[in-house]
Amino acid sequence: MRTPTIEQARAAAQRLCDLAGVTLLRPDSLLRPLIVEGVALASKIGGGSWSRADVAERVSVTLPAAGSALSILRNIPTVGPILATLGETAGLGKDVVVSISPQTWASPIDLLATIQHELGHVGSIRRGRLPWCLAILVSPEARAAGEAPCYAASMAVLVRLGGWSTQAAYERAMHALSGYALDAPALALASGILRSARATLDAGEDLGGVVQEVVTALEAEGWHR
Amino acid sequence: MTRVLLVEDDLDACAALAATLAEAPTSARVTTAGTVLDALGELARSDYDAAVVDLALDGPAETLHEALAFRGVPTLVLSGTRADELPEHARRHGWSYLAKPASAEALHDAMDRLLDDHAPPGDIAPMSTPPTSPAVTAPRQRVTVAAPVPVAVQLVDKLGELGAVVAFCILAYHGKLSGEWAVAGSLAALGVQSIPRGILAARTSGPPGAALGLIGLGLLGALNVGSHDADRARVRGETVAAATSGLLAIFALAIVLLVQACGPAREALVDTQSPRVDCRAGSHRCYANAPEVCSATGRWWPSMPAAPGRTARVCADVCEVRDDGIAHCASSAVVVP
After folding, report:
1. Do B221 and A72 touch (CB under 8 A)?
2. B304-324: per-residue pLDDT in tens?
3. How far apart are CA B249 and CA B246, in angstroms?
């Protein structure tokens, strides 16, 4: 199978986000440094293991309720309206924003895997709303249940389009999950979820259309298998 | 019979160690794990009287070490390639350590002392062991943990500062104080004190520090709008909106504080996403043509990622549970040889 070019992958990523009604923030976005600071602080507070440099280079993130946050931001004296206008200009008026890391933006397969990962979060946020976002903050179990299926989506893309073995993709996902401050029961849950996904991929099946959606988006950009 | 969890990624070494531990005099019922994750899964499923852990595993093992220490499982840590790191690792948790290769006698001796003495391992007397495989117990570090401040006390602690901000808000709204001074005063009350302190405290108490930031935003918004007298009608409308933002922020803080401090509240919050049904931890099932996994708290969680459009993803063909208990998507097509 031919690897898509980085241009095809970026266009396909944009297409997938457009279809999902999500704002895609590129690494060169003016808002990226602000997001990096916020995620690094949240990781520090939550007991995660990400340093600021890790976040800046490698962490892509889904931000819920950006539009609502801008409404509150607008009420801050003087700088609030300016920042809010900048945010809206950058497309943050939509309900969910996906910010992509520089490392991911440079690799076609990683980018597509990450987009499907983040769109998994988008679905969870839209279904679970505020309680889900709070649950992920305070409960390692909810964090595992939220992150593991999204890493499963990444696994599917890496295996089907990147030529990874299911075992290698599984190990990469488990390694990544070690950065989420999960306790032992939560890690066991995440492991179970990823084993299920690995079994699905080993059986030659798609993960509920995750891979097919990427293929369709790539083909619309002129890519052929 | 003594239950021992043996964590070793070298299959040959694992088999040899397991056989030794199963022999007299230790005569343990040994469960082996080849990876950190397998070991964590075993710890989540069963209780163990002791653990034997190789220091150099397949990946970062801090989580496993923390889990063992948290559960108070007496642990013997082994290493051949990183023997020089053994004392420091053992000292950190008050564990025993043994350099590899170790004779069967040294291993039995170390295990006997570990199992005989359920007092802190630091009380174990130094062992007489072969010079090539010293079994040593490191002194346990004494850790002092400050008693957590009750949530009610934390809330009362904040009332003074919140009262100051409300006073600024009222003064600004009635034109007794300019908006700029009101903002400066509020920053002094909230920004200089509560927010940094909340963030620092959040190292131990979690999200409340961030929620304090939200409160600051909401109240500052209310102040800002309240300080403009030029267009009273417009101001009143915006004041309502800003005050609503502030109230929402306070509401969010209350929820975060409640769920963070209160286990049942946290569980109730997670129940809104997947209620507990008392399933067996680690088991799989197919539900609505999609695989699900049961957590340690007895909740079913889907293993398929959510679709962005609020719909759940399902298997294209069928979901089935394999002989080894793993649920997954499969093809129902019968292959004709």
Report:
1. yes
2. 999 887 678 999 989 999 998
3. 5
Amino acid letter, A156: A
Number of A–B residue contacts, CB under 8 Å? 228
User: What are the tens digits of pLDDT across the range B190-232?
Assistant: 655 444 444 444 433 334 444 555 555 565 555 555 555 445 5
For B160-196, the DSSP string reads HHHHHHHHHHHHHHTTSS-HHHHHHHHIIIIIIIIHH
Q: Which of B174, B159, B263 is nearest to B227 (CA)?
A: B174
Q: Which two tokens stand for residue B14?
A: 């694992």
SS3 A97: strand
The first and second tokens of residue B195, run together, are 């927010």
Residue B309 sits at φ, ψ, to 5 deg, of -95, 35
DSSP result, A99-166: E--HHHHT-HHHHHHHHHHHHHHHHHHHHHHHHHHHHHHH-HHHHHHHHHHHHHHHHHHHHHHH---H
Tell how strand B318-321 and strand B50-54 pair up: unpaired
- Omega of the bond leading into B25 within 30 degrees of 0 (cis): yes
Report the first-to-last Cα separation within chain B, whole angstroms. Answer: 50
Backbone angles phi, psi at B159, to 5 degrees: -60, -40
This prediction has a pTM of: 0.57
Contacts of B266 in chain A (CB under 8 A): 138-139
- A165: tokens are 């073995």
Residues A210/A116, Cβ–Cβ less than 8 Å: yes
B-facing residues of A in 64-123 (CB < 8 A) are 71-77, 80, 116-117, 119-120, 122-123
ipTM, 2 dp:
0.86
